[in-house]
Write a structure and sequence with these properties.
Elements (H helix, E strand, L loop, with lengths): L1 E2 L5 E6 L2 E6 L10 H16 L5 E6 L28 H24 L4 E5 L2 E3 L1 H7 L3 E5 L3 E3 L13 H4 L6 H10 L2 E3 H7 L4 E3 L2 H16 L3 H15 L3 H15 L2 H12 L12 H8 L1
Parallel strand pairs: 3-4, 4-5, 5-7, 6-8, 7-10
Antiparallel strand pairs: 1-2, 2-3, 8-9
Length: 288
Amino acid sequence: MKNNKYKCFDLNVSDNIANLVLSRPSELNTMSRDFWVELGEILEEINRNSDIRVVVMSSTGKHFCAGMDLSAFSNGVEDIPDDKKPDSARIGEALYRVAKELQGYISNLEKIRVPVIAAIQGGCIGGAVDMVTACDIRLASKEAFFCIQEINIGMAADVGTLQRLPKIIPDSKMREMAYTGRRMYAEEAKESGLISDMYETQEEMLEGANKLAKQIASKSPVAIYGLKAVMNYSRDHSVSDGLEYNALWSGAMLSQKDMTEAITANMEKRDASFDDMVDVKKFNESSS
C-alpha cells in the first residue's frame, strides 16, 4: 500500500513493514515547514495503523537530509516597522514555542509504538541528527557522515541532539562534535556506537534495513511495543524506577497467547504467527 498524499515523504506499507522515505532529493531533503507538519501527521498515521510493526526511514538523492531549511523559519520581525515590532520578550517567547513544537515532532519518533530504523546515506546534518537520534536503530552506508551543524551557523542545537546523542555515544565525543561542527563519518560512527552497522552502498544498506525490519516484524507486536516503552523509560529514569515501570508493564500487557505461540512455533521449528494489534479506530466504533 503506497501513500502519495505527502509532499516530503513517500509511505509504503507491506508485510507489516512501513517504508518511510524522504522524497525531496533535489532540495537535499531539507526540513521545510511542510516537512515538519507532515512528519507529525505521518507518524500519527503509522501509530494508528495496526498492520504496521516496524518502520524503515530512508531517503533519496545525495544526502539523507541537509537539516533545517532556515529560510522557512524566518520570524519575519525584520519586515515589521520599528514602531510596531514586538519587544524582545515576546520575540523570545515565540521562538521558544517554535522550538517546543519542533521538539515535539522529533519526540514522536520515540513515542510511537513501533521501532524505527534509520537508513542513512550521504549527509545527516543539523536537524537530521536530532531526528535520527530519536530513532531506535541507525544504519549507514560507507560514505555517510553526521554533523552537528548548528554551531557553524552561530547557534546551539535545540531540537534533541544535545539531549539524546550523549546517551548514544561518549559524552566527550558528542561535545567535541557540538563545539566544532566537524563531520563524523560512518566508520567512526560505528566505532562510537552511533550506528549499528555500515554498508558499502545504499542499496546494500536498504536491503539490510528491510531484512532487520522483517526480523522485528516476525516477533510479537505486543512484546515489541513493551520493549520500546520500557527501554525508553529506563534510559531516562533510575534503575529502580525502570524496574517498577517494567513490572507494571508486564503485569498489564504480557500476552499469554503470544508467549504460547512463540514457544510452540520454536518447538515445532516453524515461523510464529501473531495477531496484529487492535485497530483503535474500529475498536472505538464498535464500543460506542
